[in-house]
């Protein structure tokens, strides 16, 4: 059925009933999720090594912060927790 390489299968968007706008939005969503636009913007110009190190450091710190916040929010939102202030 699919004669397409599996790498490109996720980027395939079907146009149904001539609705090109919906297909275009779906394709943009897929490309944004895979960060294709971000990498294309980075490759437009040369990035000096110290700028690259700084950007990578910032991205890693941002990822760590987001993961920690997500973990803390999941912890707070879970059900059946013991009351942290039993004297109230």
UniProtKB/TrEMBL annotation:
GO terms for cellular component: ribonucleoprotein complex; ribosome. This is Ribosomal protein S21. It comes from the Eukaryota. Pfam families: Ribosomal_S21 (PF01165). Belongs to the bacterial ribosomal protein bS21 family. One of its GO terms (biological process) is translation. Keywords: Ribonucleoprotein, Ribosomal protein. One of its GO terms (molecular function) is structural constituent of ribosome.
């Amino acid at each position: 059925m699919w004669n397409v390489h599996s790498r490109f299968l996720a980027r395939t968007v079907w146009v149904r009933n001539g609705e090109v706008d919906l297909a275009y939005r779906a394709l943009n969503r897929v490309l944004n999720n895979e960060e294709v636009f971000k990498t294309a913007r980075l490759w437009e110009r040369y990035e000096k090594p110290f700028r690259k190190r700084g950007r990578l450091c910032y991205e890693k710190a941002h990822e760590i912060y987001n993961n920690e916040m997500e973990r803390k929010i999941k912890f707070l939102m879970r059900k059946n927790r013991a009351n942290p202030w039993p004297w109230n």
